[in-house]
Design a protein that fits this description.
350 residues; alpha+beta; Beta-Lactamase; 3 domains; GGDEF_dom; catalytic activity; Diguanylate cyclase (GGDEF) domain-containing protein; Nucleotide_cyclase
Length: 350
Amino acid sequence: MRAPPTRPAGTPGGREPEEAEAGTLPLGFEALDRFMPMHVIVAADGLIRRVGPTWLRLRPRGELIGRAFLEVFELRRPTGIQNVTELPNRDGGRFSTAFRKGARGSFKGLAVHLGPEAGLLANLSFGISVLEAVETYDLSAKDFAETDLAVEMLYLVEAKSAAMAESKKLNQRLRSAKVAAEEQAFTDTLTGLKNRRAMNHVLMQLRSARIPFGLLHVDLDYFKQVNDTYGHAAGDEVLQSVARVLVSETRREDTVARAGGDEFVLILRDLADVSQLHEIAHRIISSLERPIPYNGKMCRISASVGLTTSEIRPGASIDQLLEDVDGALYASKRAGRGRCTVVELDRLRE
């Protein structure tokens, strides 16, 4: 509140020019902007003479000041209003409105007369659409009256958004950590291939989904001599080289696992054709017969392979399939190494 102004000469009632045009107010416009940042002052002729600062975030000044209130705003309630100055006389001055075009937004308002022939003062708010308005027009707490409950709601929404954002970041970190942990649990650290645990997981998935697959069990020949002659570092180099060969001979959807030591298992998804699998096995054997260099020395190995498919024994368990292919592998060993043996139901044959 401020003390009534003195009456300067030439100004009726001692009012400031802007006040004289809009009507007498018991407080200055700076205070009015703070108390009601979404106020609208409408003169007796129905033209908008002044608006609170928040309106200028929604519409340019030229689209509001000097325009007829009912051209800018569409009255939704009460109905039948022909002259905006009738608003304070209907429903206790309460009304509902929205922009006719352009910027979005619906508003609740309360209108009061400023005095005889002085027009009206309307104070508006966003109502339940406040959150949409804040997002649409990038509003902040300063665009609302400090006593407006919307400010508290904005603080709560901001706090909730911040908490949700942090929660989302935490969940993402946890998911990443989980994926990394699972990947580590399923990976052989020396070769980067899958390990036995991952191998069993893939086999159970394929068996459960009844997806056909081929199974190759590869065991290195003469690997012990490499370790004994050149040391375990040379052996590690050989295992890594073998891993690269096995990956190069398989597809992205296949699984190459180090089952332990110098043993590897290849699971070839949707490939149960024995002749194709036999060809892959022989390419692997041929590649692994090439000497592997290590510190100026040449490490020589070969590979024995056992081969089976999910279709040779459709009803077999995972353990039975692994036992079958293991038996085929050792048949290759007994037959002279560097070869592939295919599993059959009652007997083994090359």
